[in-house]
Amino acid sequence: MSELLRKYKNKEETNGVKVIHDVTSENSPLEYVGFKLMELAPGAKYTQSLEKEECCIVAVSGQITVTDGNTIFENIGTRESVFEKKPTDSVYISNDKSFEIKATSDARVALCYSPSTKQLPTRLIKAEENSVEKRGILNNQRLVHNILPDSDSSANSLLVVEVITESANWSSYPPHKHDQDNLPAESFLEETYYHELNPRQGFVFQRVYTDDRTLDETMAVENGDVVIVPKGYHPVGVPDGYTSYYLNVMAGPTRIWKFHNDKDHEWILNR
């Protein structure tokens, strides 16, 4: 099994909470990005005290109530499935704060982390505040929901985005990378991909590779899996008959997304 691929595992429930994924700097090659995925039963609660890290709480599906002890956001979350193809609500919590999540329905929640030392205000990122864009042409088309883009200054490190790719299309394509701290040409950003598929029995292919091929892995990714991208190019191919969703978390030393296309494949942009 690849160290970059984390498989969905139906773990035991504790007080209504299942922690499906927990990617940290201690169990992965990532330094700047952490990712946790939880499934909560109605009424279940999850609490956490942040130290020197910030967190973006994404209501992936279902509804939740979130509080940092001072501010409360009730019944947030706009969809029962990511394949409704509409943005959802999220909450940004800064470093050195605590928070509680309570599920008001069956809910799937993503916690996106990055190191942070400058405290910022807690903020509800409403679904309607997500900028929505269509990218690509021909068989490289996808729908993008920008939750925390680099144009949004309400986070210190985190970049968070959702992408839906239709049947028989490619995403994160042509292959691009952002693993060099070489601004303004390219920024260094680590990344995680949390995947869902419709229908659920589907799969996508994701390749992670570097120019010198010291890293070169191609993975069959199924519903609920996470792919870790510490460096390199990272395209996703979606087979016929299935729709792909993924939630991206990116972070690095500078909060800006500047990528470099694989020159061997950049020609497709000029068709």
Automatic annotation (TrEMBL):
Q: Describe the reaction catalysed, as an equation.
A: 5-deoxy-D-glucuronate = 5-dehydro-2-deoxy-D-gluconate
Q: Which class of enzymes does this protein belong to?
A: isomerase
Listed pathway(s): Polyol metabolism; myo-inositol degradation into acetyl-CoA; acetyl-CoA from myo-inositol: step 4/7
Can you name the source organism? Niallia nealsonii
Q: What is its EC number?
A: 5.3.1.30
Summarize the protein's role: Involved in the isomerization of 5-deoxy-glucuronate (5DG) to 5-dehydro-2-deoxy-D-gluconate (DKG or 2-deoxy-5-keto-D-gluconate).
Under the heading HAMAP family, the entry gives:
IolB (MF_01673)
* InterPro entries reported for this sequence: Deoxy-glucuronate_isom_IolB, IolB_Bacilli, KduI/IolB_isomerase, RmlC-like_jellyroll, RmlC_Cupin_sf
Name the record gives this protein: 5-deoxy-glucuronate isomerase
